[in-house]
Design goal:
Blueprint: H1 8-24, H2 26-31, H3 42-62, H4 68-82, H5 85-95, H6 97-101, H7 110-126, H8 136-151, H9 157-178, H10 180-185, H11 190-203, H12 214-223, E1 247-254, H13 262-272, E2 274-280, E3 284-291, H14 294-304, E4 306-314, H15 315-324, E5 349-358, H16 361-369, E6 374-377, H17 386-396, E7 398-404, H18 411-420, E8 424-427, H19 433-441, H20 449-462, E9 464-470, E10 475-477, E11 480-482, E12 487-490, E13 496-500, H21 503-511, E14 518-523, H22 529-542, E15 547-552, E16 560-564
Helix pairs in contact: 1-3, 1-4, 1-11, 3-4, 3-5, 4-5, 5-7, 5-18, 7-8, 8-9, 8-11, 9-11, 17-18, 19-20, 21-22
């Protein structure tokens, strides 16, 4: 029997079908890696994110809830907390649109599903500072546009879902025409491919037994008028009685034309709110404030420039949910902590703490000795979830926290963790542990966050680093051809600096023409003491008079991470 609408039970059946489809092809998605290194984990990250979403949805069903609005809200929360890697974060943002589109509804028809995709696309684009076409973003946008068109005359869900899954396949096939690196590597976008598989699984969901009231609900749905738009979130009246915590308002403020005066912005916000954070530069900054009137905060921001990525959270509701054990704050199976362990803002200690992600035990020890108070395990192939990063932020216990993700594929999850946290959090987008260490060396606990962040960001940007890895397949990367088994020296954005037949040959080639007083070598887990000594000798031969510091990083995949000072 083809359904005309879904309740929460049928939504979960559809998502499980999508999960099964992705899981059956996850290694194929992982293999769609532009760079010929053994760290493709897009499919794994999307799979873990969807599993976390389904775990929360199932927990909601276990309480006897079947309404689409409540179950989808649980799904979205699970995805936000369980998101891993950039692809997982973008998937979580797409799922975030569903509860908004079905607010107050028992069931969802094609029109609501299409609306949820459109809202999810807006969230996904907002999560990325510079959206790139030819990625999962393009696929999601084209799917949402097709869904809105197809939903107009859709009375049955299966043909509608099959149509948008077909749109996803066509969109994925086009991604190499939109993105040169994909075309050069001869692959389609891996995140888009993962989304395509999920949508295909959803379209082919096996029939489930109708839940109580399904037949009657679908009869009423078919005969009813066009659905009304989802109601806007309620806004507290101006004369509402003061609450204990009020609202948390967070947004990005940009003003390319007129320089932003961060000190003046902070001073004004402190007159209308508490827990104020204004961090950034004269062009763009992040604003965070707690007060009873988020409309006043936003109006002030709009008066100064362009406002985007706005989130408003009811802190009283969060506090009540923590107290009552609401499903949104229950323990996730794949993470040590969700928001249940988030301290209320009022309970946080003064000062600033550093949370750093480390791919190896040695790197973790080095980052801790440099000043990081919390270390999150993870890196290439093992991206931590937003909940795991939020856990470390919570355990830092301070009002202000700086997060160093130390991997480009962890940056979005770190930012998502920041949004989930009670502390005022700034993410410095460090791309490897050497950049993280450079940023930590600029840390001065006596400085305010507004003074500290630009210093740490400048130190990160000034770091000169490269990593040495083995190519696992033949490839052409930005015009440079490599063969499987060759050793590559890659810059922080994975451009090939040099290649060679051995680690030493690649290190020497990468250092040609470079000058430095100190070169630090963070050697990987598979490097022997003898090989490490050869690396040191090679560096000394390449740069006359240089001091070489050898550190056991213990990271996987990378033979060595090199930092020049």
């Amino acid at each position: 029997m083809s359904r005309k609408s879904w309740d929460g039970v049928e939504l979960m059946a559809a998502l499980r079908s999508g999960l099964d489809r992705l899981e059956s092809r996850v290694e194929e998605v992982n293999a769609l890696n532009v760079f010929p290194v053994p760290d493709g984990d897009t499919g794994t990250n999307m799979l873990a994110t969807l599993k976390a979403a389904i775990a929360e949805g199932d927990a909601s069903l276990a309480t006897g809830v079947t309404a689409i609005d409540e179950v989808s809200a649980a799904v979205a929360r699970g995805a936000l907390l369980g998101a891993r890697g950039n692809s997982g974060v973008l998937l979580s943002q797409i799922l975030r649109g569903l509860p908004q589109a079905v607010r107050g509804r028992q069931r969802a028809r094609a029109t609501e599903i299409a609306q949820s995709l459109s809202l999810g696309v807006l969230h996904a684009y907002s999560a990325v500072a510079t959206p790139t076409e030819g990625t999962i973003l393009t696929v999601a946008r084209e799917v949402a546009a097709a869904a809105m068109k197809e939903s107009e005359g859709a009375s049955e869900l299966r043909p509608f879902l099959e149509s948008i899954a077909a749109t996803a396949r066509i969109s994925v096939e086009k991604t190499p025409t939109l993105l040169a690196v994909l075309r050069e590597a001869g692959v389609v976008d891996s995140g888009g491919a993962g989304l395509q598989l999920i949508l295909e699984g959803i379209a082919n969901v096996p029939s489930v037994a109708p839940s109580r009231g399904t037949v009657e609900a679908e009869r009423r749905s078919a005969s009813s008028a066009s659905p009304k738009p989802a109601a806007a979130a309620p806004v507290a009246p101006v004369d509402a009685a003061p609450t204990e915590f009020g609202y948390e308002t967070v947004f990005i403020l940009s003003s390319p034309a007129t320089p932003l005066d961060l000190a003046a912005i902070r001073a004004h916000l402190e007159t209308i709110g508490e827990s104020v954070l204004v961090a950034g530069d004269e062009v763009t900054c992040k604003v965070h404030v707690h007060n009873l009137r988020p409309d006043e905060v936003l109006a002030y921001g709009i008066s100064l420039g362009d406002v985007r990525a706005v989130t408003i959270e009811n802190l009283d509701q969060q506090s009540a949910e923590r107290a009552t054990g609401h499903a949104a704050f229950n323990q996730l199976a794949d993470g040590p902590l969700t928001a249940s362990a988030r301290p209320a803002a009022a309970s946080l200690g003064r000062g600033t703490s550093i949370v750093a992600v480390a791919a190896g035990a040695g790197l973790g020890d080095i980052l801790r000795s440099a000043g990081a108070s919390q270390i999150v395990h993870g890196g290439q192939t093992e991206n931590p979830s937003a909940a795991e990063i939020a856990s470390a932020i919570a355990h830092a216990g301070t009002e202000f926290v700086v997060v160093l993700p130390n991997n480009s594929n962890i940056v979005l999850a770190a930012r998502q963790a920041a949004d989930l946290s009670a502390a005022n959090v700034v993410v410095i987008p460090t791309r490897n542990a050497a950049e993280g260490i450079a940023a930590l060396l600029a840390w001065d606990p006596s400085l305010t966050l507004e003074e500290l962040v630009p210093r740490m960001e400048a130190a990160r940007a000034a770091a000169r680093t490269f990593r040495v890895v083995e190519a696992v397949r033949d490839a052409v990367v930005r015009g440079v051809a490599v063969k499987a088994g060759q050793i590559m020296a890659l810059d922080p954005v994975d451009g090939i600096i040099a290649t060679g037949s051995s680690d030493v040959e690649s290190i020497v080639a990468a250092l040609a023409g470079q000058s430095a007083d100190l070169v630090t070598l963070f050697v990987g887990a598979d490097v022997s003491d003898e090989q490490a000594s050869e690396f040191v000798t090679a560096v000394r031969g390449a740069i006359a008079g240089v001091e070489v510091d050898l550190q056991r990083g213990g990271q996987p995949i990378e033979r060595v991470l090199v930092s020049l000072e």
